[in-house]
Amino acid sequence: MKILPKPHDFRLIAAPYKGNQEEEFAYTEYQAKLMKPVGRILRSLKAENSIFSVADLVGRVARYRQDLISRYRCVPKVYALKLDVKSAYDYLPIDLVENVVKVKLDKHYPLDNICVNQYRVVRNKYITSKRCSVVFNSSLEQKIPKANNGNIIVQNETPIVLSKSDIIDFVHKQLNETSILYHGVTYCRKNGVFQGFQLSGVFFDLVYDDVTEFFRNVIPDADKGETLVLRLVDDFLFLSTSKLAIQIIRKLTCRPIEKFNLHINHLKTKYSETELQFVGLNLDLASMSFTKGIDTYRTDALLMLSFPKLFRRMEYTFATNLNSPLFDINASSQENVEENIKNILQAFTLRFISSYKLMHKRENCLKADFDLFVKNLIDLVSTRVNLQSMDLTYPDLEKPIMGLLQSKRITFK
Q: Which residues belong to the signal peptide in this entry (predicted)?
């Protein structure tokens, strides 16, 4: 059992108890033969329009933006509402989870037996491999993963076949018999699911896919085409050109929604007609584009053996961050992309400064190495964005970096 701090509370995380060496072996077998296959089947029931990351969120809003522009030839007035569900895992009704799983199993898989085939994708070039799986209702429906780029697909082990009743029984036991062991005493839940348990997130997503659909259905038909309802874990974002649609959602969520035992944290509810902060991003409603502030990046120190190694590590992380649609001119306005570029460059400069203060006493940092580091970062940006079309030059991006170094009195050899 772990306790993680929150701004005004704490979060209880229940870590799996594997027992002694003999029990751990049995637990590993149990995971491989039952828990993981059931998990794969349940994940296949998730709604296709679900979002699972900030990148998904930005991409969905970008498509909504393009739809509005194609309809109005500009971004019209958009109203926004943000909702946060209070203690969502703790209030999740156990009987509702079982019912949702049963209904979705019947909907997705008309036959009783469900198979999980596991494969290993072998990458010849790097002599590495990764696992993948296929869930299907009968041998006639099976889809074998496609090999590409010279990869080889190998069946990993014998297919696992589970009936719907097997899955329902497993889900029932996990919901009703999973407990916390504390000083030799076990504590079961009367309601909700334990965060940290392997399948809690899947149970939660299956129910909250229905919550998302419930919100979509209460919006008037005339407004559905221009209303976007998004959920990322327990945070909801509503965007609409209709103020009435947003007002309906606000009124509906003033009280708990008994069907889902859903309670809204009204302290975190936010309505806006100009801008809104959602999951660490700032959404400008006038342009329907996101910006990511400097304070949302990690700026803590990295302790490496040398400055060249530090620079290589930071360049790799920088390149990974640039893959975000926040830097896609087709997904955001030019002004927002420019702000995102400047913010990430300054954030990485601040992280270098934190690392420098930790490392410079044992090793000198050469100016030539730092200059090359800055050049490499800006070159990475130029491969992602056409700087010339944005009227941005190397000095434009370098100047704020050097300003930060001077303000922190960073010197080089």
A: none
Which pTM does this prediction carry? 0.86
Which of these, 207, 199, 156, lies nearest to 174 by C-alpha position? 199
Domain spans, the chain: 2-44+94-190, 54-91+201-290, 294-407
- Of the candidates 335, 329, 321, the residue with the CA atom closest to the CA atom of residue 380: 321
What are the phi and psi torsion angles at 256 (to 5°)? -60, 145
Say yes or no to pLDDT of 139 above 50.
no
Measured CA to CA, the distance from residue 409 to residue 9 in angstroms comes to 38
Average pLDDT score, the chain: 89
Q: With contact defined as beta carbons under 8 Å apart, do 291 and 347 qualify?
A: no
Q: Is the pLDDT of residue 22 over 80?
A: no
What are the φ and ψ backbone dihedral angles of 31, each rounded to 5 degrees? Answer: -65, -50
Please give the Cα distance from 320 to 328 (Å, whole number).
14
pLDDT value at residue 143: 55
Q: Yes or no: is domain 54-91+201-290 CATH 2.40.240.20?
A: no
Is the Cα dihedral 176, 180, 182, 187 positive or negative?
Answer: negative
Q: Is 391 within 8 Å of 338 (Cβ atoms)?
A: no
Contact call for residues 350 and 342 (beta carbons, < 8 A): no
Contacts of 161 (CB under 8 A, 6+ apart): 113, 114, 115, 116
| Choice among 30-39, 151-160, 387-396 with the minimum mean pLDDT | 151-160
Sign of CA dihedral 383, 389, 394, 398: negative
**Nearest-angstrom CA–CA distance, 318 and 321:** 5
Q: Please measure the distance between the N-terminal and C-terminal CA atoms of the chain and give it in whole angstroms.
A: 49
181-202 pLDDT tens trace = 778 888 888 889 988 888 999 9
* Max intra-chain CA distance, the chain: 71
| HSE value, Cβ hemisphere, 13 Å, CA-based, for 4 | 7
Cα–Cα distance for residue pair 100/207, rounded to 1 Å: 6
